[in-house]
Specification:
The chain is built from 7 helices and no strands. It is mostly helical and about 210 residues long. It folds into 2 domains: about 160 residues, no CATH class; about 40 residues. The model has no long low-confidence stretch (mean pLDDT about 80).
Length: about 210
């Protein structure tokens, strides 16, 4: 996977993970009232956004697992992962982006609702509590899926190239069975001709 694709994957995962972290932060802050707070006023968009986000995460994980499974079936062996990025470095990037998105989201929601914006320490505290666990899980998932999916894509390409280069089975089968059929036909013809070549019938009568 190229560097630009990795950057897009990291940023996309951070944006998606920030919404899961937003949900977790509100759950820890408001408890049982979190769902009501996140579905009214300036937060009315949030339930639909969370459902879409979780669906996108599930679809991406399922697609990655399917690619790894297909590569294992075609290759007949376990998919060996390629090199993985640093856990700490990837976690720092994901957590920073997620926290920035959470803070910006809170500021925009407060401005739309006309309510006072929370203080910076307040945003950082609840943002860190909600975003850090999600960032850890996202880092583990991205390192595993990224390494295995990249290797799986290479294995699938090799398997497809090998199938294209292999000869057609029908032509091979015809060539394999052509020689035995001719040999069997020649042996039968030879046996019939030898059976016809025998002593004359008069010799059989004279011997008796």
């Amino acid at each position: 996977m190229s560097g630009s694709r990795k950057a897009v994957a990291v940023v996309g995962l951070a944006l998606v993970g920030s919404q899961a972290g937003h949900l977790l932060a509100y759950q820890m802050r408001f408890g049982a009232a979190a769902q009501q707070v996140q579905s009214t006023g300036a937060h009315s968009y949030f339930p639909l956004l969370v459902k879409t986000t979780l669906g996108a995460i599930a679809a991406a994980v399922l697609a990655g697992l399917l690619l790894v499974g297909l590569a294992r079936v075609l290759g007949g062996r376990r998919v060996r992962p390629v090199s993985r990025p640093s856990f700490v470095g990837l976690l720092a990037v994901l957590f920073t982006i997620q926290l920035a998105v959470f803070a910006g989201q809170e500021v925009v929601e407060a401005l739309i609702a006309g309510s006072p914006v929370g203080s910076a320490p307040d945003l950082l505290l609840w943002g860190a509590l909600g975003q850090l666990p999600v960032a850890v899980i996202a880092t583990l998932a991205l390192r595993w899926l990224g390494a295995h999916v990249e290797s799986a894509v290479g294995s699938i390409r090799d398997a497809v190239a090998a199938l294209r280069a292999a000869p057609l089975p029908a032509l091979t089968a015809r060539a394999a069975y052509a020689t035995p059929d001719r040999a069997l036909l020649m042996s039968r013809v030879a046996g019939t001709s030898l059976a016809k070549r025998g002593p004359p019938s008069s010799l059989h009568i004279s011997t008796h």
